Amino acid sequence: MDLNSDLGEGFGRWTLGDDDALLAIVTSANVACGFHAGDPTTMRRVCAGAAAQGVAVGAQVGYRDLAGFGRRRIDYDPGELTDDVLYQLAALDGFCRVAGTRVTYVKPHGALYNTAVRDEAQAAAVARAVAEYDPTLPVLGLPGSALLRCAAEVGLRTVAEGFADRGYAPDGTLVSRRDPGALVTDPDEVVARALRMAVGGEVVAVNGASLPIAIDSLCVHGDTPGAVALASRLRTALTEAGLALAPFAPGDLLRP
Amino acid sequence: MDLNSDLGEGFGRWTLGDDDALLAIVTSANVACGFHAGDPTTMRRVCAGAAAQGVAVGAQVGYRDLAGFGRRRIDYDPGELTDDVLYQLAALDGFCRVAGTRVTYVKPHGALYNTAVRDEAQAAAVARAVAEYDPTLPVLGLPGSALLRCAAEVGLRTVAEGFADRGYAPDGTLVSRRDPGALVTDPDEVVARALRMAVGGEVVAVNGASLPIAIDSLCVHGDTPGAVALASRLRTALTEAGLALAPFAPGDLLRP
Amino acid sequence: MDLNSDLGEGFGRWTLGDDDALLAIVTSANVACGFHAGDPTTMRRVCAGAAAQGVAVGAQVGYRDLAGFGRRRIDYDPGELTDDVLYQLAALDGFCRVAGTRVTYVKPHGALYNTAVRDEAQAAAVARAVAEYDPTLPVLGLPGSALLRCAAEVGLRTVAEGFADRGYAPDGTLVSRRDPGALVTDPDEVVARALRMAVGGEVVAVNGASLPIAIDSLCVHGDTPGAVALASRLRTALTEAGLALAPFAPGDLLRP
Amino acid sequence: MDLNSDLGEGFGRWTLGDDDALLAIVTSANVACGFHAGDPTTMRRVCAGAAAQGVAVGAQVGYRDLAGFGRRRIDYDPGELTDDVLYQLAALDGFCRVAGTRVTYVKPHGALYNTAVRDEAQAAAVARAVAEYDPTLPVLGLPGSALLRCAAEVGLRTVAEGFADRGYAPDGTLVSRRDPGALVTDPDEVVARALRMAVGGEVVAVNGASLPIAIDSLCVHGDTPGAVALASRLRTALTEAGLALAPFAPGDLLRP
């Protein structure tokens, strides 16, 4: 099982979350690439830290929207979205290379992630950028999403992730943050849900139904109070349950 | 002899210069990388056009200053400048790769170019980024500049360029655009100066003295009225003078 | 009758359209405020020119999206949209004040204009910003749009505009630029449609039906080839048809 | 005596300092205007809070450099700097107006502040923007700076401020942050220096000499650990020393 988290989400003078603490916990780091967050100096630092600790680096590509932190859907022309994604992916890969590793997967951020769950055009635009840049890179996303379907259609490996702290609708999608049941805030419950997903292969939806879910990675959030402590508890719980924690796309295999 | 020009200097809705016309004339394209000009879609288009026509692509890295078009000196921290340069270089290289070529050299833009003529810290910061990303990439710049000296010190190949339409001070630097004699506007004189530089290895400074100058590339500007026609005349004149025009760092050698 | 056009749409080194030529033709200038286009120096220049020629200045507020020129819908939080609009409006008003005039109306730009035709939340967010800043400012928009309805609801004066070079759907909205019939390109036809709208109070829709349309302003575009010549023809034709051309919200009334 | 502090220095998702806590302590708030920090929603919130508590709002204008937080000197063309300052000032004033107050002074931020200590062209550019926008607005700055001299020359009121936590050179300028003695970190010493400046009219320079200093405002920083507690201590100490704390340019005098 893999544990992934969003890292490098500061910008210049502004910081967000505790990158160093999370690098010691997670196995995969979704690193912001400068369009919704992340400046070049932060990108270098996080890539170097990830390489040093054997954490895989994924390109967390987002909309060009620093003011909105990439959380507002933008009606991109698909071709321009492909180009914006490829630009971010290549830029981050540059910092990975100088750190002795490589970008080993791609995961969209924020509103692009959510849009690509259902919007075929944007999902295909993201997949196309990845396939063009490096067809061996897997795409990390929501099981059943348009993104993973489009990625598979262009020949990319797809990796499904689960969210132990988010509510699930009966159809397996996440409950919108605007609706009740969107967030699971009790740490004990989050850990229990994570184990049920990772070990048992199921999740209880907001209507009480048990849904089958097959995931290779669990997403832990890093920018809320208590996030690091919770991530640490999750790591311990998964390990104690007998799961080996490791990146689904390790970067060190790429090193000479 | 190489002919280089700044290309891809539009941004979104805004265009600047005639990229397609210049790609048919020059042998090396200094392509803007998104910080002072250049958006991902423009970068892709110019890289594809350059690859198709055998024009070498150089990363024209600049300050992060769209509003000032990179023409205002910024007192960067050297480490941050290195990171901003590496980011731009890697991003452009991504579009070259999908076009079947590679970035084959680096040339700073605008105020960064001018600053790196004398400012050791910024010159070294640029050189460091290039050396880290790919130590086989040459740096294109002004003969005698701190930039070429710093590039050589870290083991990079250096390539000297001349400006047929700019006035030279007796010390071989360019006359500031704020001072008289900065620009040579008569097309006949520009062509004559180009030939004298490229063939004769000398340039007449503003004080009338003849200076020796050894260049491997001539820079032609593309964003002024009549620029394309002048570039075309220069190409013809150099060819008729017996000079073979070719990139100093051809991208097609890199293709399988 | 008023003639309005988008002006000040350059940014830094990049220019778009011929502001000076259009200032001699139109009676109202929709001036970009820096979020989708327009830099402070351009804003000052256009405001000064408008004031000198008795052209009214409107704030052409847009999404924060320089790379997309404000032409991509963004799913703003309504409160943040209100704040972004108010910021732009106040900034432009500063340049009007130093030019001896004032912003005298507001017209959204691009995707914000189109979104505010039907999206009640974004339309209301724009109207709220205007009402907060200065409840005497009229809003210029499409007849029947959510924008004009929301503006009226908060007590603002509304002004309806027509587009002689755009196709109309049978319901009085504009045909999407993606669909056939979106643009009327023949200059003679544009002039004929302008006269029919302005004098006859009707427009022929794409299905051939004649629609009643009551407008106080005609929008002329300035950033296409031949745009200035067409705007000039429109002005002459309207004048010869006996219409007095004047701003619907003149700025000179505000001067001491 | 006035206590001023930089507020509203977040941007979108990113926050910096504790605006609410500082609004309860200081008498004047230097509010970021969107170019180096500060988004419209933050500006509205801080202006509303300041108006509600009788804290004066100053426009903290800065370079257009979000990535550098306005802390890197930029070689602006003076005319463009004037325009950028006027834009920011007018935008912030819009949020003050809707909060029932007005911008009542101007203080440059970061590298612009430091540059305007000695650079006549940039100092004059800032002063010109203020004088054009509203010649009754005072400028807050370093005693003896080019900024205050240029402001006085165009007829503006000038207000001198002191920094209790910064080292002073023998000529009355601040010790550069790069040099030893730049920062005074011991809270007791900061309070003692503040009292000596505010009550005694002198400051001890890094060479041990006592310099006369006449200030109307003390600047307290808000974005470091312990900053709010220290600001609170300063307020108490000054009050207990018999100084009445009040804005030098109160906004409530402007309200009807």
TrEMBL record, chains A, B, C, D:
Q: Does the keyword ATP-binding apply?
A: yes
Question: GO biological process: what's one of them?
Answer: carbohydrate metabolic process
Which reactions does this protein catalyse?
5-oxo-L-proline + ATP + 2 H2O = L-glutamate + ADP + phosphate + H(+)
EC primary class: hydrolase
What are the GO MF terms of this UniProt record? 5-oxoprolinase (ATP-hydrolyzing) activity; ATP binding
Q: What is its EC number?
A: 3.5.2.9
Question: Which key words are in the record?
Answer: ATP-binding, Hydrolase, Nucleotide-binding
- Highest taxon listed in the record's lineage: Bacteria
| Quaternary structure and partners | Forms a complex composed of PxpA, PxpB and PxpC.
Put simply, this protein is called 5-oxoprolinase subunit A
Give the source lineage, highest ranks first.
Answer: Bacteria, Bacillati, Actinomycetota, Actinomycetes, Micromonosporales
Q: Which gene encodes it?
A: pxpA
